[in-house]
Amino acid sequence: RNIIIIEAGFPIASPDDFAAVKQIADLVGNEVFEDDYVPVICGLSRANPKDIERAWDAVKGAKRPRIHTFIATSKIHMETKLNKTPDEVVEIAVNAVTFAKSLGCDDIEFSPEDAGRSDPDFLYRVLSAVIEAGATTLNIPDTTGWNMPWEFGNLIKLLRENVKGAEKVVFSTHCQNDLGLATANSLAGALNGARQLECTINGIGERAGNASLEEVVMALALKGESHFSGGPGSGKLYTAINPVYISPTSKMVSEYTGMICQPHKAIVGANAFKHESGIHQDGMIKNKSTYEIMTPESIGLMRGDSESGAGIVLGKHSGRNAVGTRLRELGYDLEPDKLNAVFARFKEVAEKRKGGLEDEDLEAIVVDQAGQSNMLWRVTGLQVSTGMSGIPTATVKMMGPDMVERYVATTGTGPVDAVYKAIDQIVGVAVELENYSLSSVNEGIEALAITRVSISAKEGGPNDVPSIHSQGGFFKNRKFSGSGSDTDIITSSARAYVSALNKLLTWNARRVNQSEEGHNDHPLTDTDGVGNAEQAEPMAVAEV
């Protein structure tokens, strides 16, 4: 079994978001397991008919569809953001639930946004009204991460005691992590009667993130039967999640989003099951339970031989089987073609290294190859010249979707800037570099560098890709992330940048294909091929 409710997205945000939610509803929402289990597929909407109807159109194909609608209830939100009186907010909330029900939706979730800072008496009023209108789940958000666990737990208790019809609905939590208390607040909610806990893989989310799914799951797995008495029911709590999928799912989310977990992240961080202290190592050798309250195997992370003192050193003489075995131990069960791509890249990197590759190097190569999917463009040659007295210059050669190589030479404020300007000219894009980070996978002069970038199309440019913010309702440019790795930091930077550009261009191509008008309002490149690029003649450059 997996997650019971999947809130797949915000369908009104963009055609792509709508298509994604609909695909999840139509496929995952109709996959019935042997025990008749099928997940609820939920679409998020603001409390207005247009949003609600769009959400229903996206999820209604699922066997168990749900609409989740919300409106703010705190004084500051009602007065400054909504410009609405409490009476108007109650009316809007009731009308939203009533409209969702009129569409044929029998599973309706309602959230009073910023409930953690709302007047409890007003919450009693609005929640009682939406229950009467047909809401089946009441989600209580600590939208700004303001509450302490004892405050939030008591709020759930008060709502269960004072909201009319509370016994007919499921209470849910949605906790932000601004003070690092999202997991603690969610568990405090569960202790006081919440039976749905909203969370995300790796705790990703707005600002400091949301309650972390892996933390909530493992806390309940370890203490759910013994530490939640005093609330309603038996006091024994559990989830239907199989925790052995936590580690591979966490890695998958990191790779697809470009949001890398901090090394000391609970449960899924790179250091979560590593022991450096001599005292700790001594204890671990004698009995692993001295310093581990759960095993890495319980979340799907295999230590492998290297963790127990007899590891295989992966180097340039290693074969595909050895690399594949180690990857499986690390939680990467790759398809044959993906393994071949990773192995080919592994051999390229290993040839440049005198020693073997560590686990971190291997994972960096997997991330690098994951970012090279949908390769419309790829770098085939790269040469830079820089120094204290010279102007940084880059010559870049690239292969495009038409299989023609083109090259451009440009100058910049530094070697990476020069490379990025050359790539922009070849591909014919206008983008903003939102974020650039470069880190060493491990120590030493031959360490593998991993670069992560995020870009967005320049407003009004040929690749402009605006989308609607899920809560604010304003337009903002979509960001695309990319990663690349190499022993050469310039090559690593180029691979990351092209990875992000390919994602932007692929997204734009899908959007054009979905256009009802059947014409391209957002051209991806110049009709000639690319801006100022020329077809390449053979030149001596390093391959990437």
Average pLDDT reading:
85
- Tell me the overall shape: globular
Q: Strand tally, please?
A: 16
Beta-strand percentage? 15-25%
How many separate helices? 16
| Helix coverage percent | 25-40%
Structural class: alpha/beta
Largest sheet: 7 strands, parallel
The separation of the N and C termini measures 42 Å
Which runs of at least 5 residues are low in confidence (pLDDT < 50)?
Answer: 307-312, 519-531, 536-544
Q: Please state the CA-atom Rg, rounded to the nearest Å.
A: 26 Å
For the largest sheet, list the strands in their spatial order: 1-2-3-4-5-6-7
Defining traits:
544 residues, alpha/beta, 7-stranded parallel β-sheet, 4-stranded antiparallel β-sheet, 16 helices, 16 strands, 37% helix, globular, disordered C terminus
